[in-house]
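>> received
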Amino acid sequence: MRRLFVLFWIVLLLMPAGNLWARIERWTGPSCSGLATITQGSGGIYFIEGAGVDLTTGLSVSNSSLTATIQQRWNGAQNAADGGNVLWGKIKVLVHASTSIPAGSHYVYINYPVGRDSFSVKVIGKGVITGATVPTFSAPFQSNVDVKLTGTGLSSVTPTTGATVRIISDSFNQLLDAGGQAASGVSVTAQPDTSTNTDTQAIVRLNFSQRLTLATVEITLRSGNTCSGLNPGTARFNVTLKAPAAGPIYVKDHLFDRTDKTYTVAYSTTTLVTVTIRLDRPVPSGGLTPISMDKSTGVVSGPGVVYWAVIPSSGIKQATGGTAYNPAARFNQITVPAGQQNYAITFQVASCPGAATNAAKFVTWKPDPNNDGQPNRKETLFTILCR
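>> returned
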């Protein structure tokens, strides 16, 4: 140990005077483009190595909003034992920038009995969202709702998980369905568009679980990239989306008369099933509700017309006094009256359709009976037990 100590001092004496106390050889820690980098309001740990670095009398900084604290020292022998160069000392420094420090280059000075050395630190502005551009809707919104967030320090949003969103629903922020009524059970996901992400903008695509006319959401951005103002920490912004209750009317819910949607049929008994179709808003009233027929197909269309079917149709029959039902047809048809939003359909399970436990589907199409895309087609599973 004594020999290493003597060798260390010999090396120092042979060094040029200008470098005697000011020779940083290597450093490690959070960086961006080769520069030590931290974000406003955050800090980073840096290991600084070089001849005589461990003999510093203390640290000072170029800006009072920057702090630097020595947390540990290693002399040459200790540094060698730690895997470093025996000719270099090492210090562990915590550098922290306040939220008010200007973005740009700042310095940590390593002071010695004779002279000082400087360690440059780049401070990145904390990511801030200052505004948002939302789509203009002509009908209720649901899928692929692109919100453009603008601000500073928004680069390098983490793909897939870098954007999250939550719905704000309280006495000040209403959540309304496609018919302008209070909505519940709504979920939403967010996906950042990394291909267009820059320091000043981030586009986030929202997808809701149902069609809405009013929603307020909080979008949060984050990044794992040291070069981003979103690391560490996040940026949040609230946006309100609003649309008219216009465009096609769709089926919103299938409300079964049994909570578990399970119905039992025995050898000599039948069971009735009642499903209430609820539209996303009432059929227009106060005037004529146009109903037309395609002469080539015989398909009837109109704001209250709904097409429905039970799959499989075997064992399903029209109930006495119930809704008209033809099991051989691809679909059946009902018309919700003007001013109404709900329509109850009752049918009969008259025989076992097959196995002891059978999964069945109640399906509706609106407004187009030949369109199996959502939200035009809606299906709900129910169970038929055979005893």
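>> Residues 2-14 form the longest helix (13 residues).
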